[in-house]
């Protein structure tokens, strides 16, 4: 029998950094902030999914020539049942315009690692990316 919990949720996410802080988004009706991006649809590459999600969530595009892969991060999938895993391909990029919360996104905010980890709810995938960016001395 197929066990959906064994199949990780494949996503693409953006680590957009400004003033040594990383952008995080909060969905309408939710309390936690997480990385902008989303699920990779069948037939899409992580890069294609990221471009689509950034247009949908932040009403802007990735600046040409700035997209580079930060890495693949695996963690418990935030907001899903116990045992559900996240497989997140994360990219660093600049945006062509000021990001705006659109669609399902209620709020966007830039965080230092300490500000994010001090929140009452945090996404494990975001925490892993913050740790990597801190190690690379890209965020405070």
From TrEMBL:
Domain of life: Bacteria
Necessary cofactors: Mg(2+)
This protein's UniProt keywords: Hydrolase
One Pfam short name: NUDIX
InterPro entries in the record: NUDIX_hydrolase-like_dom_sf, NUDIX_hydrolase_CS, NUDIX_hydrolase_dom
Any one GO MF annotation of this record: hydrolase activity
Domain Nudix hydrolase: 7-135
Protein name, per record: NUDIX domain-containing protein
Natural source organism: Rhodococcus spongiicola
Classification of source organism: Bacteria, Bacillati, Actinomycetota, Actinomycetes, Mycobacteriales
